[in-house]
């Protein structure tokens, strides 16, 4: 694998994670439990889709085959996507979405604070903007985790179950392959193993303050690095890519 191929794959991974999680959050638009939370989650979705746009635009430039960010978003099949399994999961109830968002926001903060130091100027610039956004995303998810965890008996039980159910997808966040090895050596990517302790510290502090139990690390789901996904991704893409599939290259 060449450096160019590794960089293309890496930027796809970052872009795909933001794109699919942003799409999931956008599904809450007009359905939030309160107007303020509805608007907040819609804005978070826009942040993520904006990050995806920047990363996929750069990925297309790196690839150098004339494709655009729209081509990468709307013209790839699910086996060509590299997003983590956790971002594909259905929203579930509000507590389930908050649990997933806390996990991802804590991870993204750890990741993008390191990627700001990347020797790749484009990735560093996108990461600097992402850090500002992710800090708010983490605060939002933290505040709601505390309210639900230390709220009623039902809210406590439901969000605890949400963390228990999702935890099996967290191990994959820190998996690395040849892509990471090549780009770490070039000073472009981040050693994901170096992020895990800080991520676990953030998660532990929030969950304990919310009177919740940190789930035990056990069996972990995996597959996205090889393009193997949950069945949920196919449904997301069928909806997200419908217009492009029905009217290829349509112009407004």
Q: In words, what does this structure look like?
A:
- Helices cover 64% and strands 0% of the residues.
- The protein has one domain: Up-down Bundle (Ferritin), CATH 1.20.1260.
- It has helices at 3-26, 35-63, 69-74, 94-115, 121-149, 153-166, 178-185, 196-209, 231-240, 242-246.
- Helix 1 (3-26) packs across helix 7 (178-185).
- The mean pLDDT is 95.
- The protein is mainly alpha-helical.
- It has 10 helices and no strands.
- The protein starts with a helix and ends in a 6-residue tail after the last helix.
Q: Tell me the name of the CATH homologous superfamily.
A: Ferritin, core subunit, four-helix bundle
Oligomer description = single chain
Mean pLDDT: 95
In the CATH scheme, the class would be Mainly Alpha
- Compute the number of strand runs: 0
Counted up, domains total: 1
* Euclidean distance between termini CA atoms: 39 Å
As a whole number of angstroms, the C-alpha radius of gyration is 18 Å
- Give the SSE string: HHHHHHHHHH
Please identify the structural class as seen in this structure: mainly alpha
Approximate shape: globular
């Amino acid at each position: 694998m060449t450096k160019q191929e590794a960089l293309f794959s890496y930027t796809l991974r970052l872009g795909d994670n933001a794109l699919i999680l942003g799409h999931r959050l956008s599904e809450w638009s007009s359905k939030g439990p309160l107007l303020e939370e509805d608007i907040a989650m819609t804005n978070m979705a826009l942040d993520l889709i904006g990050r995806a746009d920047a990363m996929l635009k750069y990925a297309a430039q790196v690839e150098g085959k004339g494709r655009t960010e729209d081509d990468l978003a709307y013209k790839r099949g699910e086996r060509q996507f590299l997003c983590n399994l956790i971002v594909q999961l259905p929203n579930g109830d509000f507590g389930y979405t908050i649990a997933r968002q806390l996990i991802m926001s804590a991870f993204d903060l750890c990741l993008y604070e390191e990627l700001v130091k990347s020797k790749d100027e484009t990735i560093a610039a996108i990461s600097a903007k992402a850090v500002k956004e992710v800090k708010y995303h983490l605060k939002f998810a933290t505040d709601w985790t505390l309210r639900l965890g230390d709220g009623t008996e039902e809210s406590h039980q439901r969000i605890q179950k949400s963390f228990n159910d999702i935890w099996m997808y967290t191990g994959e966040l820190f998996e690395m392959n040849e892509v990471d090895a090549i780009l770490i050596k070039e000073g472009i990517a981040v050693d994901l193993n170096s992020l895990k302790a800080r991520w676990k510290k953030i998660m532990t502090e929030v969950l304990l303050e919310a009177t919740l139990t940190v789930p035990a690390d056990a069996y972990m789901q995996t597959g996205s690095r090889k393009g193997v996904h949950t069945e949920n991704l196919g449904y997301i893409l069928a909806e997200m890519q419908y217009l492009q599939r029905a009217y290829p290259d349509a112009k407004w």
